[in-house]
Amino acid sequence: MNVVRSRRQGRSGMRLIVRRHFVGLASATIFSLAANVQVAPAPQSAGDKFEVSFPASAHAGPITGRVFVMIAKKEAPEPRIQGGGFGDMPPIFGSDVNALVPDRAAIIDNATPGYPLRNLHEIPAGEYYVQALLNIYTEFHRSDGHTIWAHMDQWEGQQFNVSPGNLYSEAQWVHLDPAAGYDIRLSLTKVIPPAQTPADTPWVKHIKIQSEMLTKFWGHPIYLGAIVLLPKGYDEHPNTHYPVIYEENHFSLRPPFGFSTEDESISAGRRAQLADLNRETSYEFYQSWNSENFPRMIAVTFQHPTPYFDDSYAVNSVNNGPFGDALIKEMIPYLETHFRMIPKPFARVLTGGSTGGWESLGVQVFYPDFFAGTWTLYPDPIASLHNAQVRRPAGTYGAGVKPARRRIGQPWTFGATVGNLGSNLRTGRRGWLSKAVVGQADGENRSQRGIIHARPRLRSDLQPQN
């Protein structure tokens, strides 16, 4: 890590500029979304402000997207990495930009909403590491007549803070004092490099194809991926065809079921957790897969990120497009042509847990004659009826606030609070993504306006297209 010290005039005093490289980490996507709570006006001060710009050397033309500033107490990992999750994350503030040109500053100030703090003025005085990031949007002219600005996935699974092509600044160590005010300038001089797809091995093959159906719907090239795990003896038996198990899941570059030929060291706590869940380690699964008596089959996991989220829920949707049909009519036929799979319904089964559980069940329901069955585990709410949200009498939590809950009797305000971060109902991740799947399109650059407190329903137009 290279460290540059510089003395500057003004309230910031001594600043430490930290330069460090990072290894891409999977993080939760924070995209644009509508503010579902009313933000109280920030108290007046001498002015708390960040000015964020980028040079032409980083990006030559104008950018439409969303600027973020992350404010962290810890030096490592970088604030942008710390700010990519939904757990113990540092304060993050975001603002949309429209056709922002090089050297023109976007402003993050007390009028900018944030999470978990409402505005910059709520940050206690002290020293912090600060970093800015610009999530770049693409303009999609969809075949349904709607024009959508959204982030085009770069095969990283809609992780805004590590998405290739996005711009970010150096981390700076600064003094922030809301009572006195401050004006911090951050320059987005860095560009996140392209994602690295793991190399094929004798066991694992990586497939990526452009979908004609989805490209037509979005008016932009859209890709589908698959990771294929071959059985023991596949090359030694060239005349043998195999049944297939399709594992549904979130976007990942890992092989099905976490398969790994490397005996990676894991902590005692993690090993105990796996044992408690009755789960194998990745290497233990490889040992089983490679054993003499293990059933011979091919395993497949899909990649189908959308401009909204890291996966499409694997069904057709008025917002996402015909992802279900694309997987069934484009991706699986491609796989059955290039690998020795038995192309019959009896030889195709599904599985998945959590969101993958919803997907495995949804695909089986919408394509009942294509698969033999599904082993669905702990799925997301099947019908998305209110989806963990709770209605309360007016005024209980303040105007416009309808918090979710984790269990009976425990209000969970995160779902409402995180709504401060954007303008298009996307930051809530899977909490709002289900609305994109079963909700209506309104053509206003958001996927489901008005559906958040409505009763979502499975729509007839989600049925597979003949």
Describe the structure.
The protein has 466 residues and is an alpha+beta fold. It has two domains: 2-191, no CATH class; 204-380, Alpha/Beta hydrolase fold, catalytic domain (Rossmann fold, 3-Layer(aba) Sandwich). The chain is built from eight helices and 24 strands. The protein has helices at residues 79-82, 212-218, 268-276, 282-289, 323-338, 355-366, 414-417, 430-438; strands at 2-7, 14-19, 48-53, 63-72, 92-100, 106-109, 114-115, 126-136, 138-141, 147-150, 167-168, 171-176, 182-187, 190-191, 204-210, 223-229, 244-248, 298-303, 316-317, 321-322, 348-354, 373-379, 404-407, 410-412. The strands form six sheets. Strands 1, 2, 4, 5, 7, 8, 11, 12 and 14 form a nine-stranded antiparallel β-sheet that branches. The protein has a six-stranded mixed β-sheet with strand order 15-16-18-17-21-22. A hairpin with a 6-residue loop joins strand 1 and strand 2. The chain is globular.
Concise description?
With 466 residues, the chain is an alpha+beta fold. It has helices at residues 79-82, 212-218, 268-276, 282-289, 323-338, 355-366, 414-417, 430-438, and strands at 2-7, 14-19, 48-53, 63-72, 92-100, 106-109, 114-115, 126-136, 138-141, 147-150, 167-168, 171-176, 182-187, 190-191, 204-210, 223-229, 244-248, 298-303, 316-317, 321-322, 348-354, 373-379, 404-407, 410-412. It folds into two domains: 2-191, no CATH class; 204-380, 3-Layer(aba) Sandwich (Rossmann fold).
